[in-house]
Amino acid sequence: MATPLIEETIEIDATPDRVWAVVSDLARMGEWSPQCKKMIIFGGPVKAGTRTLNINRRGALVWPTRAKVVAFEPEKELAFRITDNHTVWSYRLTPSATGTTLTESRTVAGGQTTKISSVLVDKVFGGNTNFESELSAGIRETLGKIKRAAEA
Fold first, then answer.
1. Of the candidates 151, 147, 149, which has an alpha carbon nearest to the alpha carbon of residue 10?
2. Per-residue pLDDT tens over the stretch 82-101
3. CB 2 within 8 A of CB 112
4. Does domain 5-151 have CATH number 3.30.70.1350?
5. Fewer CB near the terminus (10 Å): N or C of the chain?
6. What is the pTM of this model?
């Protein structure tokens, strides 16, 4: 069973519109994420309903996933659901006294992913605890890179 919510937050010294410009540019996800090396966007500008093909990598292992944008509220929230494992990845922006609070999360409804995802996590990625620890570290890394880009 997957942890239902993995979440990290960072303070960014930039306005929500500046942070949004970085977060909503999904074609640049490979610059931020240590696992998702590329997001290929289908159908023009990103909006609710946009579909993507994601190329993920961990060491020598490379695998694709598909996603659909399920929330798109400029300067507030962007979320996409991974079709292949039913997880939802989201970015929530909240204005703060110094700029923007950015929260990234991975949600698994009821802690249940797909059978194939569960098997891969168990047999290939070293089990849930190890994999989710990597995801948490990856989220922190992603947020740090977004912060640097937004503050530049």
1. 147
2. 999 999 999 999 999 999 99
3. yes
4. no
5. C
6. 0.94
